[in-house]
């Protein structure tokens, strides 16, 4: 399916992953200019790209960027049991395969490549960087899941029991936690939109999904110093879903030479579409300014890539 507005064209298609599952993918491209750079969306847990991330993608496409998204296995319009993550490695591999295939298209060679990860998608973005440390030019990390906040995490005894049960009933929805939608998104109309979106998972987290989220967030928290690419973190100061203190630790411990942290008083977890319009405008002003500044400066990866291609041509 394809559609077009005055400034942005939209397309969607299904691709097969390495395990034979159909994954839903989508893209938003500026129609009146060559893209300044490529942005790859990593959506949050229980969310999807084409509806909940649409306003984000359109804002960035209107700012001149090409935007690409994929619904993870078990999420949105992709195959798999809804809300179920069999393995976080599968999520990362699927994103890596799809995003790199787009980056390597002829028309995209030489363009800057950025990841935009929201919440659990922030963890995906950091793991994509870990998988290919020199491939991505940077990331926008929105309330990244480097640690799940204590408000929504079961106590350690319950976690221990549930972890053992994962071996027997991995898909069961029995993890006791607050309704994430209520604590993540400030504006009631947005909460209603998410609840009525059939492609967003509702209900308690499935056992193995919760286990995977806890395991990967703990792993990231222990290895923050391995993050070496440019990034900007944006985090609401009253976020009750992901832990702002770990975003602050990521900023301090990461070995990146180019890193920024923006925190927003009175803002919640869902900065991209769960806040008031005035607050969302402030958040996107920071994101777009950061992206445009880096695209204008260029990047040593692109210089190396172009030099390598020149050397190859001369050798022939």
Please outline what is shown here.
The chain has helices spanning about 55-60, 90-105, 120-130, 155-165, 180-185, 190-195, 205-220, 245-255, 275-295, 300-315; strands spanning about 1-5, 10-15, 20-30, 35-40, 65-70, 110-120, 140, 230-235, 260-265. It is of the alpha/beta class and about 325 residues long. A nine-stranded mixed sheet has the order 1-2-3-5-4-6-7-8-9, sandwiched between helices.
Unreliably modeled segments: none
Strand order of the largest sheet: 1-2-3-5-4-6-7-8-9
The sequence of SSEs as H and E is: EEEEHEHEHEHHHHEHEHH
Indicate the percent of residues in helices.
25-40%
Structural class given helices, strands, pairing? alpha/beta
Output mean pLDDT: 90
- Strand segment count: 9
Based on CA inertia axes, which overall geometry fits? globular
CA-CA gap between termini: 42 Å
CATH architecture: 3-Layer(aba) Sandwich
Compute the number of helices: 10
**CATH domain class name:** Alpha Beta
CATH level-four homologous superfamily name: Alpha/Beta hydrolase fold, catalytic domain
